[in-house]
Design goal:
The chain is 36% helix and 19% strand. It is α+β, with helices and mostly antiparallel strands. The strands form four sheets. Strands 12, 13, 14, 15, 16, 17, 18, 19 and 20 form a nine-stranded antiparallel sheet that branches. It starts with 7 loop residues before the first helix and ends in a 13-residue tail after the last helix. The mean pLDDT is 92.
Length: 537
């Protein structure tokens, strides 16, 4: 990292002249706005730049190059559980793109939207609803105030038909470290219309270089949206015994292989994870080790009617297609699944309304579960909401004040461990055991989900929840995360994305790819100023 001590003041003066003094934040203001992080990571922030016009970004980067100032771009800074708005290295000036909120183009016939970095899931949902366009937002559990572009560049995924969000990206534009502009070859040679409709372009495919890297700042992106189908249903089922995990994994693989396109995805969540979404944290029942005893988990499962594993799937298509898929799923899961249900949004809303008429604790428990189900249906329909965000607050409930939830601002402790796990029953069992052993050893509740990425691969999400006000708890959670990554790697499970403090460790694990990345970095950014250290690129 270059020494910027003597160069920062003239760089800030140049940026103030370009952007206006009100859009260049001091170190203290930058820390106030962007310094909080759910993982417990900290960074020194020399300043932050608020960008109101993407056309000024090339000159912003030329100033950074002139004065050798490292910078870190963010879309909304809501990368909760992975670093929030923080850079991989210390001392980077933040470039805040959240005010770039233009929906630059929408093809209402084809359903392709072109957005700037600050366009959130909620903004796109409002745009589609306001204009009556029958398309679905590529939703995630991060909530309506998170960037579409930022999530796609992290190769995020969701529950709507276009599960892999970067796979749905067709075209993008980026500013490189020297201030030059990158446009796709198809956009330059064939025009914007064809570029928005064909992902791969012509010649070498270069757009992927801007995902999970610091090789450029993406300022616009075109994304294909799924058309809202005639029928949408969720599939719910349970495994009444933990020993059914292996056959359930094999059956899920069969379902996904037989019904591609109709089944959007299938999740398996352990009882711990579902309780974290359905029941208050039992703070008065934890054991001496700070963990919820097994008998308490068993009792809460009985109260909330949650069995050892819960399955959640999505079905999209015509009424006849979905009806046929339901029959196929019933046949495949026979003998393994219990309480197999297929619910529409109307079913979920009716259950929620009925639950409010049931008095006492039973009614409150049912209402809580029904509310989560109804909100989950909204996500499945491509309507973003905060259904999944309360998970970050479960271990240490905190008021979130007015407006949307912000786990970083609100002091939540959360690190996501998100490894890829092949869809094999025996391997899934070994992975579950590893997670249970390591998390409990560090005083972390083992909350675990398998989410299908294909008919061959799961991504497993494990939220490490902890008390961010306790230095000991922060250290334990970070040690747990590091051990999970190392132990999982030895067994063939590795995360598809990393928290910022884990990115330097990639250096020890990469060889051939690291050499290629280093060559690209030297060509794109010889002074290593744009998002230095991001995924060790």
């Amino acid at each position: 990292m270059p020494d910027t001590t003597n160069n920062l003041a003239p760089a800030l003066a140049a940026w103030q002249a370009l952007l206006g003094p009100e859009n260049v934040l001091s170190s203290a203001a930058a820390l106030q706005a962007w310094g909080a992080d759910t993982t417990g990571a900290t960074r020194r922030l020399p300043a932050a730049l608020r960008l109101l016009d993407s056309k000024l970004l090339p000159e912003v980067m030329r100033i950074a190059q002139r004065f050798r100032i490292p910078v870190h771009p963010i879309s909304t800074g809501h990368n909760w559980g992975y670093g929030s708005a923080l850079a991989a290295r210390d001392g980077c000036v933040i470039i805040d793109l959240s005010s770039l909120r233009g929906i630059l183009h929408f093809d209402q016939e084809m359903g392709v939207v072109t957005v700037e970095p600050g366009v959130t899931q909620g903004m796109l949902a409002d745009f589609l609803e306001r204009n009556g366009y029958p398309f679905m937002v590529p939703t995630t559990g991060a909530g309506p105030d998170c960037s579409l572009l930022g999530n796609a560049l992290e190769r995020g995924y969701g529950v709507t038909p276009h599960t892999d969000h970067f796979a749905a990206v067709t075209d993008l534009e980026a500013v490189l470290a020297d201030g030059s502009l990158y446009r796709t070859a198809m956009r330059e040679a064939g025009g914007e219309d064809i570029a928005r409709l064909f992902k791969w372009g012509i010649g070498p495919y270069a757009s992927g270089l801007f995902t999970q890297s610091g090789l450029g700042i993406v300022t616009r992106m075109s994304i294909m949206l799924a058309r809202r189908p005639e029928k949408v249903k969720v599939c719910l089922f349970s495994l009444k015994d933990d020993s059914l995990l292996e056959p359930a994994v094999e059956r899920i693989r069969t379902i996904l292989g037989r019904l591609p396109g109709t089944v959007g995805g299938l999740n398996l969540m352990n009882r711990h994870r579902v309780l974290a979404m359905s029941a208050p944290y039992p703070a008065d029942q934890v054991g001496a080790d700070g963990l919820i005893p097994a008998e308490v988990i068993e009792a809460l499962g009985g109260q909330y009617q949650i069995l050892p594993w819960t399955g959640f799937g999505t079905l999209y298509g015509t009424s006849r297609m979905v009806a046929a898929a339901q029959k196929e799923i019933r046949a495949v899961l026979k003998g393994v699944a219990s309480r197999l249900l297929f619910l529409s949004q109307d079913n979920a809303n009716t259950l929620l309304a009925l639950s409010r008429w049931i008095p006492g604790p039973a009614g409150r428990r049912l209402s809580r579960t029904a509310s989560t189900l109804a909100s989950s249906m909204e996500l499945v329909l491509g309507r973003p909401n905060e259904t999944a965000l309360p998970l970050a607050y479960w271990r240490n409930p905190r008021p979130h004040g007015d407006g949307p939830r912000d786990p970083a601002r609100d002091g939540c402790g959360l690190i996501w461990y998100a490894p890829l796990v092949p869809m094999r029953g025996g391997g899934a069992r070994a992975y579950v055991q590893m997670v249970r052993d390591i998390t409990r050893r560090h005083g972390i509740e083992p909350l675990l989900t398998f989410t299908s990425l294909s008919d061959k691969l799961f991504d497993s999400t494990v939220p490490l929840l902890f008390d961010r006000d306790s230095p000991a708890a922060v250290a334990a959670a970070q040690a747990c995360y590091r051990e999970l990554i190392a132990a999982g790697r030895e067994r063939g499970w590795f995360p598809y994305r990393l928290a910022v403090d884990a990115m330097p460790e990639l250096q020890a694990w990469l060889d051939d790819s690291a050499r290629l990345h280093a060559r690209l970095r030297r060509e794109f950014d010889p002074h290593d100023l744009l998002a230095p250290g991001r995924y060790h690129v």
